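agent> fetching stored inputs for the adenosine-5'-diphosphate docking request
agent> found them:
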Amino acid sequence: MNASRLSTSRPQNGFAHNEGSETYSAQNDRRKISEMFAENVFNLQAMKEYLTESTYYKMAAVIKNNEKIDLQTAENVAKGLKKWATDKGATHYTHWFQPLTGTTAEKHDAFYKPSLDLNIQGMESLTAAELVQREPDASSFPHGGLRSTAQARGYTIWDPSSPAFILETALGKTLYIPSVYISYTGESLDYKTPLMKSCEALNQAATRVCHFFDPTVHNVIATLGWEQEYFLIDEEHYRERPDLMQSGRSLFGNKPAKNQQLEDHYFGSIPERVQNFMVDFEREALRLGIPVLTRHNEVAPAQYECAPMFEELNVAVDHNLLVMDLMNRVAIRHGLKVLFHEKPFAGVNGSGKHNNWSMATDRGKNLLNPTELPGSNLSFLTFFVNVIAAVKRYDTLLRASIATAGNDHRLGANEAPPAIISVFTGTIMADVLEHFKKHGLTTDSNAKEMFDLNIPKVPEAKIDATDRNRTSPFPFTGNKFEFRAVGSSANCSSAMTVLNAMVADQLHTFAEAVEQRKAKGASIEAAVIAQLQHDLGEVESIIFNGDGYSKEWEKEAAKRGLPNVRSTPEALDAFVTAESKALFSRLGIFNERELEARHEVLLENYIKKNEVEAELYLELIRTHILPAAYAQQSVLIENFHGVTAMGLSRAADKLRLESERLNGHIDSLRESTDELADVLEKAHTKKDTRSVAVYMATKVRPLCESIRVHADALEGLVDDAEWRLPKYREMLQLC
Ligand code: ADP
Ligand code: MG
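agent> prediction call returned; pasting tokens
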């Protein structure tokens, strides 16, 4: 390793985490998980202790049955919550919300209020008003034109369905209150508001359809189990790479000779340093009631995954954001840096965040559980087929929900699902559907056989209802759908809001059709069967059980008329079509203004990300790459003069060739950086945001990519000692 590449030492973190006797230390915590789980959460158990009986029951009803909170309840909860938090040592509280930046936001206030009368001691308090509502400046967050500096009012409002929790740092504890974030005029400025509205829309629609089979169902919740992929690198390497620090991904670098081709990282033995980091952040997460259960090495070197047990969707999203935050904080204690970018390193796999999604009734029934005999399970078939039909109807919208600058690098890159949206059912379910379409229900069993392995002592194994298909963006995986195309850095809400909305709308359409058939005299069962058989005929083109990475699929998909939208600006168009506007306003999730604003924010985000990268290209080429190349050039020239003076003409010829090769890349870099600077300057002369975004995709991005080719070639030609940016082989070799 080149010592100069590690010249900057890590900045001091201020305080070691374990300093001070009262600070939590994972190192000394030998408790079972069951003894520490959710100890920092104001959940129903804590409420039972800190709230009066009637307030407790009211809160239980709010959480379970979607009831609204009245002012008196808020008053009582505020009292109990403050007592609980201060008993645990919290001094401050904050509304915690999810603006359209993609990360979370917080502003802390002290519980303590000094008294104006010097003779009276101040005291800690939390009023109902403080619990329910706070007012941050909305013009400083992305708003897509909904706010301005002159009309800046925005509100954060308590979301009682996601429990408050206490976050600890070495020197203090703060109470976090999950909140929605809206403008003075009531429009949503965040991810949580539309997500919650979409959950309610899905609840209404799915409950309506459930009543065809079971009139006792009161409500239906969406469930989400996310799988978070990430890279982990040494923090010192990170600090030596301005591109990683500023844009989240490496803009230069050759993939190491040994990368992932030996397939030895996936599920490999977890390096000790990494495992210690995992244990540390998982403990913090468990204490916050986040049921993280799974950890493993992923496919690319230095890539890992963390997954919890699934939860109610809104809470699962909050927990994902919290885990990402915890991982960032805890990594620093271990001298590590987590990279959540979708494609931090070219040439090896990128990272996704698979969203395992299903629906469950208040009686605990998973509506996508095929059970032993899916062919006879009409309720399952109904929800299964309707999800597929929703994807068919709204495939471009689903594609739009995951479109970001980062994810563009990943989708369709032969490692992640393609940008073509399709559904994998697996062959068993495909057979079930085929049979159902022609003949209706059947009690024939085509699922779940047993393997007899014929190995002494090894037990028989059960075959799943579906095989695995890593190449599908939206496979059915046994008892849930797994939306695999979501980006690793994304807030799941964007994808989940769209999915909920699509399915809700489809379920309403289905229910209406069934009701019409019923009105014409069909029995419920006959009406449902006939409608499903009809719908199945319409959705076939979206089902694909083959290899989604193959070139043949691209051709086949084109024949089927399935769109293959590769870039974000184009993909985002689907948000603002007349159809989408009608969909979201019909379900009460976004009005037209909100949708236009969101579209604007997403485009702006795409533009800014590309601008930052382009600026970094310019800077790093001039200040890192070219100087290293010049140093190499000087060495070659000096050598050339030496060997020429000695009359070594063959050696001189070779040096000339080498120098020409080097010079070729230097010249190309000079030219293309000049061109990039020009192109960048013209970007904002375009007439509207979408045109600027398209310009970024079609002009700026390709130019940056061609610059990279020359810079990477130089990395392979320049003396290792002169190359100051840590190389891929160093960064990806963590332990
Ligand atoms: P994989 O084999 O796809 O890597 P993992 O075990 O890593 O699977 O993750 C599967 C995820 O799916 C887990 O978070 C799990 O809790 C979740 N899951 C299981 N059942 C459901 C369900 N009914 N709804 C939503 N998510 C579910
Ligand atoms: Mg997994």
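agent> quick read of the result: Residues 227, 305, 307 surround magnesium ion (ligand 2) (CB under 6 Å).
agent> awaiting further instructions
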